[in-house]
Fold this sequence. Notes:
By secondary structure, the chain is α+β, with helices and mostly antiparallel strands. The protein has helices at 2-10, 27-32, 52-73, 80-90, 92-113, 120-144, 160-180, 220-225, 250-256, 265-281, 304-318, 320-339, and strands at 40-44, 182-187, 190-197, 200-207, 211-217, 227-234, 240-245, 285-290, 298-302. The chain has 3 domains: 52-179, no CATH class; 181-239 and 295-339, PH-domain like; 250-283, no CATH class. The chain has 12 helices and 9 strands. The termini are far apart.
Amino acid sequence: MSDELSDAANAPKEESAPVVEAPAEKPEKNNFDLISDEDVVMKSKPSVFAFFSMHVLAVVVFLVHFAFNAIDMMDDPENGILVLLKDFIASDLGRAIGFPILMLFIAWINRWMNISTSGRWFTTAMIFIAALPFLLGLNSIIGGTMDDYPLAFIPENYPYEIMGVIWMVVLIGFTIYYTNSFTYAVTTDGLIFRRSFMLNKNQRRILYDNIVEVNMSQGPIGTIIGFGTVTPMTSSGIGVGEESVGMSLGASTANMTAPDASDSTQEKVAKGFFKMLFGLMSAQRTIRTIRADPANCFFNVRKPLDLKMEINERHKDRSQSNQLTEMKDLLAQSLAAKEE
């Protein structure tokens, strides 16, 4: 019995199998919903100044608030226009009407320019900012006619300088949040464009086989600071938009040049000439241009040239011409091997 125990003690112990830990999933795989064997090669986001016009508009809103208060506080000006503005702004009614008109005019110009600040979010914000002093004045008038007014705690006067700073900070903060909502990735299998804004999320994947052309553009600000837009274009129309080029003169010109039975010969000739002239001026044509949509392109990212070269190299590897070249080389190698 003792011999058996000693033999068991001297017997070599079996080595335990090593514990293999499962590799942790990369965060990019969850962020971009990568498929199997797909890796992120480059990851980018829009630059801080990608939406530069939004920052400019925020500063313009502050300057308008500051100008209204500065004109009211200045000494008696010598300029006749400034005198009229000061007299107009000095009254509460003038402020409640003049400020909304000016802000609505800026909102209309911003909408007409069709830039990054022309969307519904900034337009709605501009309309609300324009209406706020008027609503405060209206609330003050209604409160003066009622004894127990439930909204009497709302201030009667609109603090222009303070609200100018507040609105500028809010608009710049909104712009930064909107900029960070876009994330782009170049993977081994394609391009991924992800947007997560508030409660809205969407993601688009473009395979290298579907890319027709890659365009890079830089504006003056992007050239100075060092960012640009890389737009991959596909045969389905991604990256390309249509816009009308020309001038629309409206229906008033058509009424002015409409023939009348009582017109004399000279009037008919003049109307015919102006009708031809207005027709040439109002002629419109539709052209296809490169449309940089932040949700479908690498919008104002840092180092755009490096990004474009990476996309071109991977597009070249997946192109049919490159595959035919590889097949040609393989056939040539096989023929050379047979001859040997």
